[in-house]
Specification:
heterodimer; A: mainly beta; 4-stranded antiparallel sheet; 11 strands; 51% strand; B: mainly beta; 6-stranded mixed sheet; globular
Chain lengths: 115, 112
């Protein structure tokens, strides 16, 4: 199947700093990428959908100024958590799909811990 | 009512047992259905798509009942390696958007 990578796999940062997470589709062009967040013992929750070259669409309750998403190319999307706080600590997972309704291929996730 | 609901679990079953998971969805406009498997602290991986005609992949059988808005997953001859959380996933498209909704998952532990 298609491969999606994420970097870093784990990050620990101080409160107030910004963290950038990269999501890359390695062997396909991801016209659409999705960003999810998963808190312990909870389901994945979609944060935003991004299409290459256009602004991301954020889900209700997700602050677009806090979670900056850039999908500048067909193989790379980035999520920047700005001014991170302890409540932002979570498992962030991206996925990519070649087309809007194709199967989503998930990255391995990034575990963020904000102290 | 939650958009996607699954059996609460956890399911603890002996090796070789048959186990069934159920999932219901609330939005009749939902279009595609999947089962994902998620190992502890890992990303979800697609297990299988679910079709109205039912589909089987080795020891795994998935069924969809659109009238009842119900999806099932049957695992036969459980292996220790089947231990994971199984996520029911429902998608729909509308107004140019695509939404993929995950259930909370059902944890399966296969015991030697």
């Amino acid at each position: 199947g298609a491969v999606v990578s994420q970097h870093p796999s784990r990050v620990i940062c101080k409160s107030g700093t910004s963290v950038k997470i990269e999501c890359r589709s390695l062997d396909f062009q991801a016209t659409t990428m999705f960003w999810y967040r998963q808190f312990p013992k909870k389901s994945l929750m979609l944060m935003a959908t991004s299409n290459e070259g256009s602004k991301a669409t954020y889900e209700q309750g997700v602050e677009k100024d806090k979670f900056l998403i850039n999908h500048a190319s067909l193989t790379l999307s980035t999520l920047t958590v700005t001014s991170a706080h302890p409540e932002d600590s979570s498992f962030y997972i991206c996925s990519g799909t070649p087309g809007l309704t194709d199967t989503q291929y998930f990255g391995p996730g990034t575990r963020l811990t904000v102290l | 009512r939650k958009e996607v609901e699954q059996d609460p679990g956890p399911f603890n079953v002996p090796e070789g047992a048959t186990v069934a998971f159920n999932c219901t969805y609330s939005n009749s406009a939902s279009q595609s259905f999947f089962w994902y498997r998620q190992d502890c602290r890992k990303e979800p991986k697609l297990l299988m798509s679910v079709y109205s005609s039912g589909n089987e992949d080795g020891r795994f059988t998935a069924q969809l009942n659109r009238a009842s808005q119900y999806i099932s997953l049957l695992i036969r001859d459980s292996k220790l390696s089947d231990s994971a959380t199984y996520l029911c996933v429902v998608t729909r498209t509308g107004a140019g958007s695509y939404q993929l909704t995950f259930g909370k998952g059902t944890k399966l532990s296969v015991i030697p």
